[in-house]
Amino acid sequence: MTAEQLDCLLRTSLELWQSEATLQAVSEAPLQARLALPGNLHLTVREAGPDEGPFRWWLVWSASDADHAPAGGQAIRHKPCASTLGLLRSLRESLGVSAVSRVRIGTGAGRSMQ
Amino acid sequence: MSAPTPVSVITGFLGSGKTTLLRHLLRDPAMGRTAVIINEFGEIGIDHDLVESSDENFIELTTGCLCCKVRSDLVMTLRDMARRRADGLLPPFERVLIETSGLADPAAILQALMIDRDLAGLYALGEVVTTVDALLGAATLDRHRQSVRQVAVADRLLLTKGDLVAGTDALDARLQRLNPGATRQRVAHGAIGAAELFGVGNDRRAAAARGYFRLDEVRAPAIAGPGADAHAGLHDPGIVSWCLVRDRPVHALTLPLFLEGLMEHCGDRLLRVKGIVDVVERPGRPAVLHGVQHVFHPPEWLDRWPSDDRRTRLVFIGEALPSRWISTLLDVLDDDVDREQARHARAQAGQPAP
Asked: Smallest CA–CA separation between A26 and chain B, in Å?
C-alpha cells in the first residue's frame, strides 16, 4: 500500500463515519498515519513489519497527559490488526462509530436469467 | 429438486404505465404460465379490474404498500403459492410477475426475494423492469425520490407513452446517468413482448450474455480525480452512478473482502451494485455480481465473456458515493491477497521472506 492509498482510505473513512477525528499526516518507510482524536488523544496507524506477522497493521494510541488516557487506564495502548479490513473496523469501533451493515449473501439459488 | 421459479418485478411511479404494460404482457401466449401479484396502495384495488386475466393465477394485495409489508404479505403469498402449486390447487405456474405499487421502494422487495429463507430454493429474482413516463418522467424524478430509487434498481428501463413525446434525449441521458447498466427502451401502449422483456424461452446464459449487463454501454469515467466523488447524476441530488473499470484481474478471495468492506463502511449509501469481474483463478469465466443495498446474490459464473471487453466493470448506484475510496479499497485488498498468497507460497517452498 502506498501513502497515497492509506491517506485516501483513512481520510475518506473518517468522512464516511462522520467522525470528529482528523488525519494529520501520512508518511512512508515505515508506512504510517497519524490521527488526532477528540480529547487530546493521538492515534498512529503503522504498517506491521515483515517480522511482525501475522499482523498487517498496528494501532497505537497516545495521550499528551494521563487525564486523557484512552480506555484501559494506560497512557499508551497498542492493538494489532491482521488485515486492512480489520484495521478499518478497529479504527471505526475505537472512534465509537456504529457499524452500518454487514454484507449478506442471498439464500436463494442466485439470480434467474431465464 | 425443481429449478427456482423466476420472479420478475415491474415497478415504476404512479401513472407511469405499469398496468398497461402488464395488461399487454398477459395477452402474450409466452406468459401463459405466469402467476401475477398486483400490489395497490389503498383499500380498494382497481388495477386488478383493469387487467384481464384468463386464469386463476392472479393475486391482489391491497393491504398497503408492498415494500412496507414485504415480509408478511409478499413472502407469505409466495410461499403459499408454492405450496398450493405443489398440492395441485394452483396451475403449475412457471414464472411470477409482481407489479408493485407506484409508491413502493423496490429495493425492499428485491431484498426479501434474495434473502428470505422461506423463499430460498423456491424462487429466484428475475428481471426488474421500471416504467418511466416519457412525458412526465423528468418532473417525477425531480419531485419524488422514490422514483429515482425505482430507476436505480432496474435491469430494464421502459420509457412509456413514447408515442406522446417526440424527443426524449434529455430524459434518456438522465436515465443513463442514473443507471448506466440498465437497458433502455421506448414503448407505446405497453406494447412489448414477454420474450423481449424477460427473455422467456431464451437460453439462460445466452440471455445473460445478451443483455443482463449492458456494461459495454457504460462509458462513465472510472475515477474523476483525487478526492473527487461520482457526480454523474447532478440533476438527482444524492443519487449517483459510477462505474469502476479495472484492467487487472481480481483474486477470488478479494471479492468477499471487498464487498464486506464496502457494505460495512458505506453500505447505507448504496442502492445497487452490479457488474462483471475478471477473476484471476477463473480466466475466461467472468463472475457476475449483483447486489441490492447490502444483500448480494452468490456470484453467477458465465461460460465466457459476453463481449470483447474483458475488463472488470462494476456499476455502483447510490448516494454520495466515495468513488476513489471504493477503487482504492479494491486495489489494496487485492494487493494484500496477492502478498499473502506469495508469502504462503514462499513458506510452502521453504523460502525465506524477502
From this structure: 16
Candidates A11, A47, A95, A112, partner chain B, best to mutate (most B CBs within 10 A)? A112
Task: Indicate which CATH number applies to the domain containing B108.
Answer: 3.40.50.300
Contact B18, B107 (CB under 8 A): no
Q: Do A105 and B117 touch (CB under 8 A)?
A: no
Q: Does one domain contain both B188 and B264? A: no
Question: With contacts defined as CB-CB under 8 Å, which chain B residues touch A9?
Answer: 325, 328-329, 332
Q: Domain limits at B158?
A: 5-201
Number of domains making up chain B: 2
Question: B182-197: per-residue pLDDT in tens?
Answer: 888 888 887 888 877 7
* Residue where a domain stops, chosen among B137, B168, B201: B201
In a domain, B47, yes or no: yes
Residue B79 covered by a domain: yes
Q: What is the DSSP string of B51-98?
A: S--SSS-EEEE-SS-TTTSIIIIIHHHHHHHHHHHHTTSS----EEEE
Whether B279 maps to a domain, the answer reads: yes
Q: Are B111 and B129 in contact (CB under 8 A)?
A: no
- The answer on B167 and B23 residing in a single domain is yes
The string of DSSP codes covering B265-299 is: HHGGGEEEEEEEE-BTTSTT-PEEEEEETTEEPPP
- ipTM confidence: 0.84
Most distant pair of Cα atoms in chain B: their distance: 75
**Per-residue pLDDT in tens (0 to 9) along chain A, 114 residues:** 999 999 999 999 999 888 889 999 999 988 999 999 887 788 999 999 888 878 999 999 887 655 555 554 455 778 899 999 999 999 998 888 876 666 565 554 455 544
Within a 13 Å sphere around the CA of B51, how many CA atoms are in the beta-carbon half? 30
Confirm if B230 and B240 have CB atoms less than 8 A apart: yes
Hey, which bits of chain A come out as E strands? Answer: 22-27, 32-37, 41-47, 57-63, 76-81, 104-105
Q: Does A87 touch chain B (CB under 8 A)?
A: no
Classify residue A98 by burial, with Cβ atoms within 10 Å: 0-12, 13-18, 19+: exposed
Amino acid making up residue B93? F
**A109 → chain B, closest CA residue:** B121
| Residue ranges per structural domain of chain A | 3-94
Do B50 and B170 have their domain in common? yes
Residue type, B48: H
Q: Do the Cβ atoms of B90 and B48 come closer than 8 Å?
A: no
